[in-house]
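Marked as duplicate of an earlier ticket. Keeping the data here for the record.
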Amino acid sequence: MIKDFSEQLGKKLVLKSLLINIQDIKYIYCEDYICTVFYLDKKISVAKKLCKFETEFEGLGFFRINRAVLINLYHIAEFDVTKKEIILTGGNVLSVSRRKLSEMKKKLLCSV
């Protein structure tokens, strides 16, 4: 879908003394104040609210698709509007909430 990582290049995230390139992050899933960052083929869990990540990554190609998931728009492989699902590179399937669906469509249409 979106292929230009230029706004994410050179930006890094420090988690538990790990330095992660932002463009490598596929999505962040949060459950009970524990966020799991999925990047490359790895994951790391941290005690941080999802809204903090959302603020930190504002303007860098990330979008909150439901209460628990923040995705990197650059890792979207497919978007099925009828099923309200996003398939990321690597095959992860994530659900888009009904309330975020129209905003998600706009984000993807603007970036084409």
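See parent ticket for discussion. The mean pLDDT is 88.
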